[in-house]
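Chain X:
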Amino acid sequence: MKYDEIDHKLLDELIKDGRISYVELAEKVGLSRVAVKDRIQNLKNEGVIENFTVVINSEKFGKKVSAFFEVDVEPKQLQEVAQNLADNPNVASIYQMTGPSTLHMHVLVEDFKMLEIFINNELYSVEGITRVESSVLLKRFKSRTGYKL
């Protein structure tokens, strides 16, 4: 499917406010409400829009420490390790990366003591992990929700 300037404008507006009404969107892009609704439905059907969701400020919700991990895994155990980690409630996201069976993981915890517990009890105990590197987030300048088309 080809996407035009109007589709890009619709997506930009939805990125700013996923709860904007079809009427408001129609006014912003110069189409009817029905045309906007059809375009958004097409973008959903094509998989361009995967989901409408809420972005939570994890700090204000008690998760004050945000850490990123590069986790190398034995290739034969990659799927099992990835699923095991993905099931952990502290893991916000996890991706397979290029390289020697590497997972990139984002973890949110309440404080540094909980980060230590996560690392020692929930990460290092997973069989198949061969190397772990971690970095703690100091400041966020942009996140995926800020993506511009």
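Chain Y:
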Amino acid sequence: MTPPRKPKSASAALVRELALLLDETNLTEIELVEGELRIRVARTAFAPMAPASYPHVGDTATATPREDAAPAPHPGLITSPMVGVVYTSPEPSLPAFVNVGDTVAEGTTLLLIEAMKVFNPITAPRAGRVVSVFVTNGSPVEYGEPLLVIE
């Protein structure tokens, strides 16, 4: 036997309460599951995109995050598919999966994102050369946050 569903007015009040909780805690999303009732409230903040320059063949680039400017839209931009913590190498004592200037094949592991104690590999959607890396090892990431660019 399934539990009775809450009336819509109670659900609407709960959504409002969760939205207020998001504001109070500066979270970007929250999910509540009670029996068959599942409510997820999320917000997305859009910042204006500042122009960015991407290195070309022969240019020197570093693998440090760029906090001063958001990357401009780029066809090779890879964004985070989830909220979590980025790991640039399989273990702290091992080298990074990829560095700026590396050539990668489609399916190559670029990073790991840990979410709820699960390590999710982020793989190259296509072959190319890594021209920018916007995250550092152990840094938190949000859904849609730029990770790196492959040309």
